[in-house]
Write a structure and sequence with these properties.
The chain is an alpha+beta fold. Helices cover 16% and strands 47% of the residues. The protein has helices spanning 2-21, 207-222; strands spanning 24-26, 38-41, 44-47, 50-53, 58-65, 73-81, 87-96, 99-106, 109-116, 119-127, 136-143, 146-151, 154-160, 168-175, 187-195.
């Protein structure tokens, strides 16, 4: 009985602290999540359980959230292209539509693309066959001027670039002009997460709330 009670208390404390350590997370199951996001270019909306670019052609199409002074972070997102010649990926260190980085799929390649002063540069690329209408996992670990880039759970490369030291985070898309988008749009994203210094948790609980819940649960366990 005593060992059971001790284990219960341990699990309660573990849970109470883990809640605050969870990353910022968007599953895009609810329209209300869109209030945290701003479209820098494109028509982005939450629809059918995903964040979608649904109307515009051309690019770059960028939607962002967070603060302009965010620097070091880990971002993950599950993204897919829904039409041929679309580009899709994670945007980071976003200062505006003309100044940002994007880790993306583009024209049969995985690419790190830099936009600095409006100039687009394909700074890294690796051939990768285009797959449409399938979810793909992208991940960026940004620390200082160093970026570890992952795709489908595999580390692809480490890249360094000095131009952009901080910025918001989000989703990147591009759909060539003249293409007709279907009902699902040209690019879709789900399960967007971010964690790092200064980035809040999606499920932050105040210390007082944690203490009340934890002590109530402990008393129940002791009884």
């Amino acid at each position: 009985m005593k060992s059971t009670m001790i284990m219960s208390i341990f699990l309660i404390f573990t849970f109470s602290f883990s809640v605050n350590l969870q990353a910022l997370n968007y599953d895009f199951e609810k329209d209300a999540q869109m209030k945290d996001w701003t479209s820098l270019r494109g028509t982005w909306e939450v629809k059918d359980g995903a964040l979608r670019e649904t109307a515009d052609a051309g690019g770059p199409l960028v939607v962002v959230m967070g603060k302009e002074d965010w620097t070091d972070y880990t971002i993950t997102a599950t993204i897919q292209g829904l039409i041929g010649d679309a580009d899709w990926g994670i945007a980071f260190r976003v200062q505006d539509v003309n100044n940002h980085y994007s880790w993306q799929f583009c024209n049969g390649n995985l690419m790190l693309v830099t936009y600095v002063g409006g100039a687009r540069t394909e700074a890294f690329n690796q051939a990768q066959g285009e797959v449409l209408n399938e979810w793909q996992d992208f991940k960026v670990e940004a620390k200082g001027n160093t970026f570890d880039l992952y795709w489908q759970g595999n580390k692809i490369t480490t890249f360094k670039h000095d131009a952009l030291e901080s910025g918001q985070i989000g989703i990147f898309g591009w759909v060539n002009s003249g293409l007709v988008l279907g009902a699902g749009g040209g690019v879709a994203a789900e399960d967007f997460t971010a964690e790092g210094p200064g980035i809040p948790s999606s499920q932050a609980v105040s210390p007082n709330q944690k203490l009340t819940v934890t002590w109530g649960a402990i008393k129940t366990a002791i009884k």
